[in-house]
C-alpha cells in the first residue's frame, strides 16, 4: 500500500538459473553454532549437542490463499513466512535454529520484488537468530508460493507434545487473541474501498495494532525461557494459528480430556474489541475462531496457578475436565455451550495449516 | 496415460480441513530409530546419535514446470518427488532417514487422485526406508505443487562436500546419463500425437528404460556403501540432476580446479543412443546437458583408480586439472572445447533445482 512505485524493474530472466538464488541469499551470514554448512551444497549440514533432539516443521504459503499482495508488502510477507514456521517449533517448547526457504514465482515478479521478500526473511533471521540454510527457486505459472521448513532443538526433558494434558489442568494462552483476524478484516475493507476509489488514502492509525498482528506477527520464542524462569513445565502445548477453538479441540482430543473455556477470561486487546464493535460482529466468536494469532496454548498443573496468575504475558482461560464431560465454552451469562472448531477451511479458499 | 478412467471421484471439500492430511498420511508407519515423533504434533522430533550430523535438503516441484500430468501418473510423481530429494542427501555421502511432504492442490483434484500421489510417496518411503514425518496440505489456485524436505544423517568423517576436489583427481559418475531427458522427449512427442489423435495407442516398449528414467528414477542410496566397500572416500561430490555439464562446473568452481571431460568415456545406454539417432540429435549434447538423471558425480584420488576401473556402477569420465587450465570437453576427434553449463533454465519455464 505504501510501496515506492518508482522502483527499478529487473526481469528474472536476466539473472539466469543459478544467479537468482545466489543473489537473493548472498547476505545471510550464519549465527548458530549448530550450522556446519548452510547454503551452497546439495544439502545443509547441522550438528546438535548429544543431549539435544532435532525438531522439524514445514508450511506452504500460497498467494491468493494465505496472503494477498494487494495489502501484504513483500518484506512483511517474507518476515511472516518465517514467523509462521518458528511458531510451530516454539509450540514444542523448542528453540528454532535454522530454516530453509523455497519459492516458486511467476515472471510478473521482478528481481526487486524478490529482494524485498528476502529482506523480510533476513530481518526475521536476524531477529530470531535463525540461519537460512537452504532452499530452491523455481518458476510458477501463477503467483507466488513460499515453502519454509524450520528446524529447532530441545532437550528431551523440555519437549512438550499436544497429548500430555491431564484432567484438572489449567488452560493458558500467551498474548492476546483475535487481533490478526480483525486486522485482516480491516485490510480487506480498505482493499474494497481502494478498488472503488484508487485515490483514497486510507487512515489506518486506529487499527495499527491489529494490522501489525496480521501483517507482521511475532513468534513466541520468549515463552520457553519465561516458563523455565517460572519453573513450569507445561503438560501439553500447541500453537493457535488455526484459531483457538480448533486448537483447543486438537489438544483435548489428543490428550483425551475435556475442557471448560471461560468467555470472560479471553485476553482481548481494546483495539480488537472496538474494531469488532465497529464491524458489528461478536468479539468472542472472532477471538476463538479467527486464526493467525501466533500465540501458544498450553496446559499446566493446577499447582502452578500462583506462578502464572499475575503474569502479563499469560492468561488462564479455562481448565481441563474428564474426557466424557466434553469441550465447552462457559459464557459470561454462565451458560455452557459445546465448543465448535470452525478454524479456517483451507479447501474453501481460506487459510489453514497442519 | 494408462490410468483407470472409471475411478470414483470424491471432492476435497467433502473431507474438511483436517480430514485430508490425516487421511492421506494414515498408513505411514515409521521405520527409523531416529524418528521420535512423526506426524501429529506442531513439529516432528528426531534423535540422532551423538557422532551423527543432520543433513537437510529441500525442493519444490511445480505442475507445468517440473512435471506434466498428461504423462506423469500421480503415483510415479509421488515416488519421484521423494527420490529427487533423497538424491541430494546421497550427494553429501549421507543416508536419508526422513522426509516432510507439503502439497498445494486446486479443487480439480479428487481425493482419489491425491491417494494415488501418496501411494507413490509411500512406495518410496518403504523402498528407501525413510519416514514421512510431517507436511501440510493447502489449496492452490492452479495445479499441483509439491514441496519435499529430506533429512539424512552421516558421520562427520563420511560427509563429502562439493568443494574438496584437488588437482589430478579422477572424475567419476554413477550409472548412465541422458536417459531421463530423452525419455521426456519421447513422452512429449507421444503427447503431441495423442492431442492430434486421442485414439492412438502409443507403443512405448522400445523406450521402456529411458521412460522409466524419466518417470520413476531412483536415488543412488547404494553408492555410499559401495564406496565404503571399495575403501574410497571421494574428495568432492554432487548430484547431476541439473545436467552433467553444469554440475561439473559447480564442482570445479567450488573446488577451484579445472577439468577435462572425455566424450568417449560418457556412460550411455544403447536405448538412449538409438533414441537420439531416431530424433536426429547429438547424443553427447543430450548426455551432458540433459537433466534429471539422479546419478552422483564425484572426484577421487588418482590412487583409487584400480578400485574403480572395473566397477559396472561407476565410470571414470575425466580428471581435474589446475584451475587456470579451465573446464573442457575432449571430443572423440581429440579437440578440446570449453564446457558450457546450459543446464535447465527454470526461469524460462523448464526444470531446475538448487
From TrEMBL, chains A, B:
Q: Gene of origin?
A: thiL
Q: What other facts are recorded? A: Reaction mechanism of ThiL seems to utilize a direct, inline transfer of the gamma-phosphate of ATP to TMP rather than a phosphorylated enzyme intermediate.
Q: Which residues form the PurM-like N-terminal domain?
A: 40-153
Query: Which InterPro entries does UniProt cross-reference here?
Result: PurM-like_C_sf (IPR036676), PurM-like_N (IPR016188), PurM-like_N_sf (IPR036921), ThiL-like (IPR006283)
Domain of life per record: Bacteria
* Keywords annotated in UniProt: ATP-binding, Kinase, Magnesium, Metal-binding, Nucleotide-binding, Thiamine biosynthesis, Transferase
Binding residue positions for Mg(2+) 5: 242
The residues listed in the UniProt record as binding Mg(2+) 1, with positions renumbered to this chain, are 58-59, 136
UniProt binding sites for ATP: 118, 135-136, 162, 241
**So where does Mg(2+) 3 get bound?**
42, 88, 239
The protein, known as: Thiamine-monophosphate kinase
**Could you tell me one molecular function GO term of this UniProt entry?**
magnesium ion binding
Pathway(s) where this gene product acts: Cofactor biosynthesis; thiamine diphosphate biosynthesis; thiamine diphosphate from thiamine phosphate: step 1/1
What is this protein's function per UniProt?
A: Catalyzes the ATP-dependent phosphorylation of thiamine-monophosphate (TMP) to form thiamine-pyrophosphate (TPP), the active form of vitamin B1.
The record ties this protein, via CDD domains, to: ThiL (cd02194)
Any one GO BP annotation for this protein = thiamine diphosphate biosynthetic process
> Is Ribosomal protein given among the entry's keywords?
no
Q: Which residues bind Mg(2+) 4?
A: 42, 57, 88
Asked whether the keyword Kinase is assigned, the reply is yes
Name the chemical reaction catalysed here: thiamine phosphate + ATP = thiamine diphosphate + ADP
> Upper taxonomic classification of the species?
Bacteria, Pseudomonadati, Bacteroidota, Flavobacteriia, Flavobacteriales
Q: Which EC number(s) does UniProt give?
A: 2.7.4.16
NCBIfam families to which the protein is assigned, alphabetical: thiL
Q: Which residues bind Mg(2+) 2?
A: 59, 88
Q: Which family does it belong to?
A: Belongs to the thiamine-monophosphate kinase family.
Top enzyme class of this protein? transferase
- Binding positions for substrate per the UniProt entry: 66, 292, 344
Amino acid at each position: 500500500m505504501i510501496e515506492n512505485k518508482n522502483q527499478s524493474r529487473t526481469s528474472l530472466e536476466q539473472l539466469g538459473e543459478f544467479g537468482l538464488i545466489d543473489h537473493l541469499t548472498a547476505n545471510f551470514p550464519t549465527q548458530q553454532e549448530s550450522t556446519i554448512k548452510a547454503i551452497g551444497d546439495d544439502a545443509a549440514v547441522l550438528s546438535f549437542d548429544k543431549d539435544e533432539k532435532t525438531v522439524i516443521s514445514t508450511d506452504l504459503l500460497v498467494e491468493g490463499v494465505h496472503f494477498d499482495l494487494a495489502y501484504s508488502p513483500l518484506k512483511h510477507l517474507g518476515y511472516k513466512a518465517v514467523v509462521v514456521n518458528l511458531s510451530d517449533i516454539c509450540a514444542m517448547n523448542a528453540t528454532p535454529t535454522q530454516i530453509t526457504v523455497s519459492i516458486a514465482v511467476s515472471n510478473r515478479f521482478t528481481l526487486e520484488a524478490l529482494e524485498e521478500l528476502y529482506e523480510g526473511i533476513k530481518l526475521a533471521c536476524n531477529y530470531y537468530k535463525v540461519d537460512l540454510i537452504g532452499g530452491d527457486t523455481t518458476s510458477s505459472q501463477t503467483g507466488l508460493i513460499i515453502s519454509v521448513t524450520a528446524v529447532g532443538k530441545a532437550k528431551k526433558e523440555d519437549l512438550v507434545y499436544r497429548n500430555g494434558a491431564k484432567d484438572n489442568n489449567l488452560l493458558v494462552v500467551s498474548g492476546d487473541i483475535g487481533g490478526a483476524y480483525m486486522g485482516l478484516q480491516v485490510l480487506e475493507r480498505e482493499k474494497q474501498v481502494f478498488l472503488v476509489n484508487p485515490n483514497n488514502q486510507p487512515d489506518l492509525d486506529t487499527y495499527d495494532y491489529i494490522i501489525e498482528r496480521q501483517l507482521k506477527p511475532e513468534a513466541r520464542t520468549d515463552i520457553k525461557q519465561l516458563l523455565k524462569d517460572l519453573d513450569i513445565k507445561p503438560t501439553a502445548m500447541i500453537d493457535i494459528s488455526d484459531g483457538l477453538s480448533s486448537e483447543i479441540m486438537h489438544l483435548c482430543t489428543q490428550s483425551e480430556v475435556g475442557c471448560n473455556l471461560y468467555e470472560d477470561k479471553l485476553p482481548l486487546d481494546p483495539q480488537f474489541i472496538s474494531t469488532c464493535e465497529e464491524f458489528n460482529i461478536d468479539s468472542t466468536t472472532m477471538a476463538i475462531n479467527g486464526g493467525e494469532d501466533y500465540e501458544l496454548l498450553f496446559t499446566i498443573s493446577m499447582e502452578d496457578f500462583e506462578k502464572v496468575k499475575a503474569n502479563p504475558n499469560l492468561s488462564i482461560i479455562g481448565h481441563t475436565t474428564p474426557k466424557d464431560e466434553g469441550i465447552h465454552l462457559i459464557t459470561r451469562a454462565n451458560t455452557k455451550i459445546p465448543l465448535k472448531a470452525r478454524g479456517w477451511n483451507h479447501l474453501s479458499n481460506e487459510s489453514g495449516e497442519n
